[in-house]
User: What shape does this take?
Amino acid sequence: MSQSLDNALQFAQKHASRFVDQLGEFVSIPSVSTTPERFGDVRRAGEWVADQLRGLGMKNIQFFPPDTHPIIYAEYLEAGPDAPTALLYGHYDVQPAEPLDKWHSDPFSPTIRGENMIGRGASDMKGQVAATLFAVESVLKSGGKLPINLKFMIEGEEEIGSPHLKDFIAEHRDLIASDFCINTDTGMLSPTQPTIVYALRGLAYFELHVHGPKQDLHSGIYGGTVHNPAQALAELIAGMHDANGTVTLPGFYDKVRTLDPEERAELARLPLEGDTLIARTGVPQLWGEAEFTPTERLGARPTLEINGMYSGFIGTGAKTVLPAYAMAKISCRLVPDQNAADIKGQLEAYLKAHAPATIRWELLEHVHGNPSISDRNSRWVQAMMQAQETAWGVRPIFRREGGSVPVVTDLQTLAGMESINIGVGLPDDNQHGPDEKLHLPSFHKLIESLVRFFYILDK
Amino acid sequence: MSQSLDNALQFAQKHASRFVDQLGEFVSIPSVSTTPERFGDVRRAGEWVADQLRGLGMKNIQFFPPDTHPIIYAEYLEAGPDAPTALLYGHYDVQPAEPLDKWHSDPFSPTIRGENMIGRGASDMKGQVAATLFAVESVLKSGGKLPINLKFMIEGEEEIGSPHLKDFIAEHRDLIASDFCINTDTGMLSPTQPTIVYALRGLAYFELHVHGPKQDLHSGIYGGTVHNPAQALAELIAGMHDANGTVTLPGFYDKVRTLDPEERAELARLPLEGDTLIARTGVPQLWGEAEFTPTERLGARPTLEINGMYSGFIGTGAKTVLPAYAMAKISCRLVPDQNAADIKGQLEAYLKAHAPATIRWELLEHVHGNPSISDRNSRWVQAMMQAQETAWGVRPIFRREGGSVPVVTDLQTLAGMESINIGVGLPDDNQHGPDEKLHLPSFHKLIESLVRFFYILDK
Assistant: This one.
């Protein structure tokens, strides 16, 4: 057994540079799921994944609707009914690359710079999907046998809120049934600090439209008598936080779990400091609820963010227009036990209370997903801790993460399955931003730790 | 003389439909001065004007820099040194037509719908420039002689703030020297109410940039610790007015002339009511300083408007980004005796006092022009009143207008010349907006009233 493990690890080392090349191939497919123009590319990225699975000898490969962004299922059940079964989750779609002029290389021509691969989706999360495939390959192609059963569930709609995944999980509960899920769509604290995420924030995403005059007006001819929709929107947005950075939507914090002293002490051990955040983001000063640490605000506190804002003339130069309307994309990150469904009502209540009679407003709902929190003492989590500690030489840290992985909640709620969240995204990877990067040594460590994990479960 | 007047008026009637066709030719040239892509078209519109002037036998036709949007000068001095001289001002450039999807016909394929011509620039102000030319033509081509001397000063940069006109006026004071200026870049109250504008608001236009993180961030990974620039901008904008709609910039109202009871009584005679404004604009309710009437707010009170606003992701769908920056186009309409130069200082003082330490800001200045106010009892104004009263059968009304015509201020300041502002733009002409229109009966009345004006001065 130790020989099989060694063989697999040696295989991974020997093929490390080919793994990077193959990942580059994957990243070069512009599988942006947010725009219909990229439907064909999203599909191509799915085919790439399916080809890899086929090459590894995975069985029962199926594409589930929608056709444009299929959910890909595959399985390997040769470890037998007495061995544990893991569901491997991932997504092959990526965020839009805009604004393109902020990139220093083509987002879909992956480039190696130092220890990093630069390209849209390299870190979120094609690198991790590929690492999972290469870990399996290292075992199977080095003469070994997988000591556990595997099921793959790789989707193409994560960046648009996984609109079909929830139904898929509910309808195919038996097909995907596993002892636990390995989810690599999360992050590490630093390249030297393996991290197991035990709580994730949920997301509720909206679009607020403020309508004023029936069409754009001349600001000189009408200015002073008509409430400017951009100004009215700004007034509404400004009122959504108080001076402390606390969200003012009525009832917003009612279901937020109070942090107990023990958990606050544990979170305080995380090496994330204000100065680090300032250096990473480049802001002149941090912001947010003064009574919580930055770590607590990122993981254990809900937020309300403006993701986009538009009104009137935004081209070069000066156009003296009084705009007909203004729009903001507004999203909340949620923590246990908040519920995405409640948030829309709270936002509507706020708008009913504060929107003036001089404008009309309209609230649209985009994606939403609930927050989740998991048990840190399961057999699977303990095995993963051991695998990571050996691979990195450092005991992993437990963390609440600020991002949202709705599939973790859905697997728990609909299929009774707990997730181990062990992605290797780094805080400075620029996920969703320009110059997204993947730290390649971390990518290789992920392969190694998964190989080790498989063999630990075999004991 | 009466025979010459009759001949000229008959000529204008006989050629009315050809005048409309020729105007259509002028409007079809997309002379958008705000974008370099249209430099050639702006130039073409200037050539169109010069060709007309040449056809009328105007002399000393000259193009002044810049080459892209030349100021066109021409003169007719045959009335002799004892006759009065009028400077005819106009501009042949137009606003951008965007958003194109809001137009019901191509903005540069002028279309007649009922009594109106639809097209970008038809009302602002190609219709009026053409009417001026056709009035001169009606006199000269019907066998008459112009009883006054004329000088033309037609520019192509009005919609970008006339960056070269001020210097031109200062440098060519002798060339353009006239007894008064006729400016048709203003509006009428209604098609049946000729209007002489005696005061115009000034303009000071800025762009405010709020910078947060050095690049777009993932709103889940950083949200709660970084001040969202869109939110920070909204907070700054929201603070620029109080709940009454009063601008809060320090010192903003210090130089605003108090309206005396006599002028308030005169302005109260204007048939502009709240219900009319609501019907025209389609807003659910008017807005603005409660202690002033809508008419007073439009003409005699300064404003601060948001002309455009941008941050983050504004495409279709949901992108969970925490934007790196946010931008607003902000402009103030100024009234006597405010000064555009003061406003930048006031805005900077406001930002210094209210911008938080969690963001960086930057203020750019675009165009600016001072407000103006004129004597209502000059010989030229009285003659124009008489001409309009005969043409429309209604005594003209005096008005303070909300828009800005910096050239009026510049001619007064730099060349000691007063302007008579008699444009026929209507409040529902959608100037600067989609479906801009020109009311053709008003266009013909403008031709008639100018012809009458020329002969009244001859008495």
Summary: Chain B has a mean pLDDT of 94. The first strand of chain B starts at residue 59 and ends at 64.
